[in-house]
Amino acid sequence: MKKIAVLTSGGDAPGMNAAIRAVVRRGIYKRFEVLGVRFGYQGLIQGDYIPLEVGSVGDIIHRGGTVLYSARCEAFKTEGGRKMAIRNLKEKEVDGLIVIGGDGSFRGALQLTKMGYPTVGVPATIDNDIAGTDFSLGFDTAVNTVIEAIDRIRDTATSLERTYVIEVMGRDRGNIALWSGLAGGAESILIPEAQIDMDDIIERLVQGQKRGKKHSIIIVAEGVAKGSNIGDVIRQRTGFETRVTVLGHIQRGGSPTAFDRLLGSQMGAMAVDLLTAGKAGVMVGMQNNQLVAVPFEYALSQSPQLPLTLYELAHSLSI
Ligand code: ADP
Ligand code: F6P
Predict the structure, then answer these.
(1) Which residue puts its alpha carbon closest to atom 8 of ligand 2?
(2) Is the CB of 108 within 6 Å of ligand 1?
C-alpha cells in the first residue's frame, strides 16, 4: 500500500476535522501519500480528489464541521455508483479508503469492502448511535452544547417561574437527551428507549411547584414527540406558564471539546494503522477506554446500547 484516501460522509460532527488531521499526519508519518475526497461518496463518484500535505490540515483541530465537506449521495446506494467510485479510486492508484461518518456511511463502506475495495471507518455522529463503540465523534461536544443551552434557559425560567420544554436531536436514539438531561438537572427526560409516562411528568411538575420550585425543565428527544406537543399537554394539564425551545442544528456545530479532539486524533491514527496493516471492513471503536477494531457487519447488525442505568439515575435524582 502506498496511497490512501479519506472522506467524511453523512451528518457532520465536531471532531471530524481532528480525525482528518490525524489520518493525514499519521499517513504521512508512515510514508504514505494521502488524498482527500471532497463531499463524501458524491466526490468519490465524481472524482473530486485533493492532495493533502502536513500543512493542509494545520489549524483545523479546533474547528467544527468538516474541511472535506460532506454529502448525502443516493447514487452510491446503487451498484453502478459504487463501481464508478472504485474505478476512480483505482485510476488515482489509491490503495485503501478511510470513511469518517455514521451508520449510513458505514453501510456504504461495507458494500465497498464486499466489492473487494479495502475500507476502514471512524464513527462520527452526534447521535452516538453506533454499536461497538462507547462514543462516536461529536457526541460529547453536542451534549456540552445542550447543557450550555439548558443552563441559560434555567436562568430565565427561574426568573419568571416558568416550565420549559427543550427539544433536542435524536431521531431514533435518546443519547443526547439522556446525557444532557442528567448533566443539566432536568426534571424529566423523554427518550425513545423508555415508555413515556405523562402522568408521572405532570405529577413531578405539580409536586415540584408545591415544594416551591422556581422552574422546571423537560428534555425531549425529537424521536419521541415534538416539543410543542409536550408543551401543549403540560399547559393544558397544569396551567403552568410553559415555553418550548427547539435547539436544532445548533447542536451539530461548534468547536469540538477536548474529548472529541482526543477521540478524533486517536481514532484517525488507528484507522491508518489498521488499513495499512491490511485490516479492512472494520471501524475503529472505543470500548472501556481501549481502541478496538469492530467489523462493520457487527456495528451495523447490533442495536446500540443506551445506558438505561443513567435514565434510572436521572429519574431518581430529579424528585
Ligand atoms: P450517516 O453516515 O451520518 O448515518 P446517512 O445515513 O445519510 O448518514 O448516510 C450517508 C451516505 O452513506 C448516504 O447518503 C449514502 O451515500 C451512503 N449510504 C447509506 N446507506 C447506504 C447503503 N445501504 N448502501 C450504500 N451506501 C449507503
Ligand atoms: O447528525 C444526526 C442528526 O443530527 C439527527 O439527530 C437529526 O435528526 C439529523 O441529523 C438531522 O440532519 P439533517 O438535517 O442533516 O437531515
Answers:
(1) 171
(2) yes
